[in-house]
Each structure stands twice: as C-alpha cells, then as structure tokens.
Structures
1.
Amino acid sequence: MATNRSYNDLCGLAHALDLIGERWALLVVRELLLGPRRYSDLRAELPGISSNILSQRLDGLVTAGTVTRRTLPPPAGSTVYELTAWGRQLEPVVLQLGHWGARSPGHPAGDHLSAVSLILSLRTNLDPTAARDDDLALELVMRRERFHAHLAHGTLTTGRGPQPHDTRAPDATVAATPMTLATLLYGPHDLDSAVTAGNATVAGDTTAAARFLTRFALPDTADVPPGR
Amino acid sequence: MATNRSYNDLCGLAHALDLIGERWALLVVRELLLGPRRYSDLRAELPGISSNILSQRLDGLVTAGTVTRRTLPPPAGSTVYELTAWGRQLEPVVLQLGHWGARSPGHPAGDHLSAVSLILSLRTNLDPTAARDDDLALELVMRRERFHAHLAHGTLTTGRGPQPHDTRAPDATVAATPMTLATLLYGPHDLDSAVTAGNATVAGDTTAAARFLTRFALPDTADVPPGR
DNA sequence: CAGCATCCCGATTGATACTG
DNA sequence: CAGTATCAATCGGGATGCTG
C-alpha cells in the first residue's frame, strides 16, 4: 500500500519511484545510511515531517523491502529502523543526487542541516588531491552524537560512533552543530574564530583539526542558460 | 513556482528533491536523456501523465535550470524541451536508480515501456564480458523512430537516430515495440519466433542481431528479509 | 494539432491532538 | 517513545476548452 498510484511502467526507474519517489522517502533513507535509527530520532532529524507521514513512509519502505523494523535486544528494547542490504545500495544514488543538487544555481535556501547530511557531504566533497598526504583522524560531535572521520592517503572513512577496529585515538575532537561545521568546511569561517565565538569546541590537536577542515570544498555551481 | 513546499534543508539531496522530486519530474528527465522532445512526444511517451501536470513539470524544470525550452529553426518551427548541461548530469542518477528499481522483489508490474527506457536499459544491463569480442552495429526501430546501438569490444554506444560520424552501415535493423524488444533481450522469447509471430522484423544480418540480443541481462532480484 | 489553462474530484500531505 | 486519529490544505488525474 505504498501507493496504489503506480506509474505502471516496466522501466526500472519508474518502479524505483513507485517505491521511494514519495515525498520524504529518500530523506528517510538518507538518515538511515549511517545506521539504524528510532522513530523519534528520525522525527528530530527531519524537521518538517509530520508524524503520520513518517509512519506511512516507514511502512512503505518496510513493505518494499528497503528498510527493516527491528526491536533491539534487552535492555534497550527500543524498535529501530534499518536499511536492508538492498536499501543500502541507494547510497550512491543519494550521494550523486545530493552532489547534483549542491550544484544548483537556485541557492542553498533553508536553515537546517542534519548530522547525517554533514557527514555524507564529507564523502562527496573531499578534495582527494589536497588530502593526498594527510593522515588525520577526527572525532566530530554533533548534538551529543559522535561520528568519526578518518582521512588517510586521500581516502576518507566516516561513520557514526568511534572508528571501529581502530585502536588509535583521534587526533582531535570537534564539537559543533552541523550548521557550524558546514560553515567551517565550506564557508567563510575558520575554526579559531568559531571557537572564540563559542560555536565550536576543540580538544586535541587543533592544527590537525583545522587542516582537516580545509580538505573539503563544495562543487562549483552549474551555470545554466538565462532562466525562463 | 516549482513548489513552495520546500524541504528547507541545506542538504544537497533535499534541494535536489525540491527540484526534481515531484511526481513525474524524473521520468520527464529520463525521456529527455536521448535528446530534445516536443510536448506532445512527452505526452505520448509518458502515458498517465496529465496534460496540466506535464506543463507544470516542464515549467518547474525550466525555472530550475534543468531543462531549456527552445524553438527549432524554420521550417520545423516547433518548440522542444531539452536538458541543459547540468540537467544531463542527472543521467548517472537516473541509470543507477533504474538499476536499483530493476532489482526490486516487487515484481515489474506495469504494461508500458518507453523507447528511451529500453535504450537506457541497454546501457545498464550490458554484460561486458559476454560482449568482449563483439563488434555489432544495430539499428533499432521502435514506433517509427530509429535508434542506434553499437557494441564494440565490450563498450556500448547508443542514441537516437543513426550513429553519428559513422559511415559504416548497421549490421542489422530490428523493428519492434519496446515491449517486444524487452522480451527478446531479457525475457523468454527469441528473435526468430518473434519474427514468425509478426512481432518483430529484421533486415540485414539476422545472426548478428540475435547475437546482440544475448549480450544483455537483467540484474538479479535483491533478496530482502521476509516482509513484515 | 501543439501547448497550455480551467474545473472538478479523489488521493496525498500536513498540523495537531491523542493513546498505549 | 512510538506511533494512530482526525481534519484541513494541497496536489495529481481526467475531461474539457481555449488559442495560434
């Protein structure tokens, strides 16, 4: 019952849109790309989504086989939603579409940025040549949640929580909102002034943190013919 | 006026969905991937879209900068819609999402297939190792329109009309509906019986045509945990 | 006929309140 | 916390009409 309003088209694209083409669906998928989330997490990370719509989308994604609903073992006992293996294969689509959207001449309106978006943007916006000789392990803390970003020899590893199977401690820990981190990565601000302004805190090797932040850049805006 | 119902999210994905996330929008883009089309062409190739919705989507895509509206020089004089350079960069997204959708366990319901979808499916579903040693130039005719598909050394070139800058004549010409071609490529039928049944006609090297058709295969269906 | 604009109606979405 | 229930607003689909 995802929708009975199918495109009725044998094309794979049309069928994909039957499954994840409804409003909010792909943003829910985005939020799940870094691991399982609870219903209330998703609500918090997708401001603007209504409670009933989130329910409907999750239902649709579950019946489509993109997401599974799972109850965590005790003592947690909470129910979480998680991408299936097939659902995880939407990652390249999400990243490419995000990259495409970031090039839009229609300015980046909006005022919200989720932690997941910020982390995924690192994967898309890394400048591998600038980072060629780096070996930097950062811990990013956004809204109480910890993420890792490990940049070694032009390759980036990111995820929620600490770096798995990594005994090495992060070179630095930066705590800030996703918005602040975005301005540090892509915008005009630098780490020092953000710290003095009280918008970010750094622990560990501040120089390493600052260098890490310079290794990312937004793609160029596409230039399009004079509108209309 | 694409939508005043924006996600209001700085994330590139959310912005992309503001632009091409509405119903039918990405299917319109798909139909434009092989070159400019007129309004009425799009209507014919997207059965189910309402005339006013097609208008709205084209407006939205044009103001977003994804599509341009152009009047062909005389004597044609008709107006066509065409992807901008930035719009063409949606191709990998469309192909990947189509490939993802084709793996859905929810069966390929529906009864329609556009000529563009069929051609694009060739790009996604080529088996390069099977085609490693081929050098086959086919002309495909669907609903009066000609397309070329040239397979050389594991690489496929496809497009509308004849192969450009290619003096070599096609090895064979196959005329059929996109649906019939799909069953020949991916389904149970073979070229000979389709011809005898009157569903396809072949001119030129029939063996080459038949060999070409065996070089493509649908991706495996994803297996997902028992739904709900 | 191509390219929309209008009107109507059902389907989808959104805001909010409410429940186990 | 994890949703469901309700109702208003909006959107999409289909038919139809208009304009060059």
2.
Amino acid sequence: MPELPEVETTVRGLRPVLDGQRIAALEARRPDLRRALPADLRQRMTGSRVTAIRRRAKYGLIDTDRGDTMIFHLGMSGHWRIDPAELGAHDHLVIDTEAGRRVALNDARRFGSVDAMRTDDVEAWPAIAALGPEPLEPAFDAGALAAAVAGRRAPIKAMLMDQRIVAGLGNIYVCEALNLARISPVRVAGRISDVRLERLVAAVRSVLERAIAAGGSTLRDFKAPDGTLGLFPKDYRVYGREGQSCPCGGTVKRRVDAGRSTFYCGRCQR
DNA sequence: CCGACAACCTGACGGC
DNA sequence: TGCCGTCAGGTTGTCG
C-alpha cells in the first residue's frame, strides 16, 4: 500500500476536486473490496457537500456537511483516478460532483476498504481507536516510543510495522528509517538505548517528510491522483536494492521477516 | 506475548 | 509467444 506518504499525497490530490463540492452521484460498482461496502453508502453520501478531506495513518477520511464520513484504505494497490477518460475493470467506486468532476477508486487487488460512519464516531471506530501516534506529530517522540516498546523482545522492525506502536509506516519506510538511523531491523526493540531511539524518531520523520515532498513512491500500482508519479524511489537507500551499495559503502542485504522482505545494511546498521 | 504463516486478489516480471 | 513460479506498498486471523 500506499504507506503514509502516499495516502497524504492522495488526500492532497483529492482536495482540489472534492473539497467544498456537492456530491451529485456515488456509484459502487461492486459490493465489496476487502470486505463489504456499507449498504447505505450511496444514500449517505449523495447530495452531501464535502467539508474536509483528511488523513489518519493510512486511512483517508472524507467528511460531509451531513455529519457523515467516508473512510477509505488503499490496501496494497489502491489509488484514486481523477477525471478518468473511461472507467476500467478495477474502478470500484465512482464519485461525481455537481461541478462535473469525477474521481474513481481503483484497486486491482481489492485489499483496500471503504467504510462510512458518523463523523463524531470516527475516532472511536476500533480500527482508528487502536492506532498509535501520528509519526509526524509531536506526540511521537523518543519517550513515547521507549514507553511503547518497553519490555518488548520483538525486533524493532516488527514494532515499527505495528500500527498500534506508530501509525502509518509500512515495509518501505520502516526499512529506510532503520537504515538512516543505523539500527539493525532485528535488534530487540525493548533494549535499544534512548539515544538510538531518538535517532530513530528523527529518521522516521525525515524519511516521511522527504517522501511526502517528493509526492510519495511509485511502485507497481501507486500513482498520485493527478497522474503524476511519486519521485521518492530514486532516493531509496536500501529498499529494493539488494546487492547494491548502501550510502555508507556497505552492501545492501535482503532477508525475510514475517513473510516480508527486509532490506538493510549489515555494515552500518547495528 | 511472540512470530510464523495463510488468506484475501490481480498484475508484472523473469526464466524456460 | 506462452506458461509457470515468484513477488509486490497491508491487514487480519489462526496456530504453536
């Protein structure tokens, strides 16, 4: 999926098209993605005016003036298409505005999701309520991270991938942040010094901020809504670069943890 | 609590 | 050209 920077790029791309606009029509072209779409989604959204488009972790939130919020998750392959010339097989949800614009949620693998609930209830929704702090906000600092991993023997990579510890990171940015912080992905989380956790927090922020500034990452599926390509992959230090050189001069290695590829440098990451 | 693994689904790619 | 195996940004549940 799209990790935090890609969702942020998506939200920013949707704003010029949807923000402040009245929804003239919403069509679900299939009843489900990862799970069933809300049966009353069309009825709840049609006729409403969009009042805000927000992001929480990897979730995108579309608020309306009727007090409803549509929540989307892009899964592994989801992205929004803006004013598509024609609809394709994987355009599963289509929204038309009164101003004549159209956005389509395209998700080939259908690992994404769409939910709807009262705006006031969003924070209490279990999937959102369980999330840890936003990594770009002040609440995510070395002290908070230390408290979250205290006593945990799991490897730090697993902890950073856990959305309850910190919300929004995925495989790419965890690998990148650990490399930037010079911390081994398999280091036992609860035994990392405060100084190194401080470095890790700074690395997470740095990686995410630079990725957002670049418009996110383009891999097989992700595109920003305006069709432009994220430019961040050219800045990858380790991700997808097995056998190539780390900025430190070492060689990038790959291992598999919990079924996911981990890219790291055995020389500078300890 | 931990981690390995499978499942959910399609598409891209490399090898033969 | 085509078939087959492998891999891919995530989440959730089971099992040991």
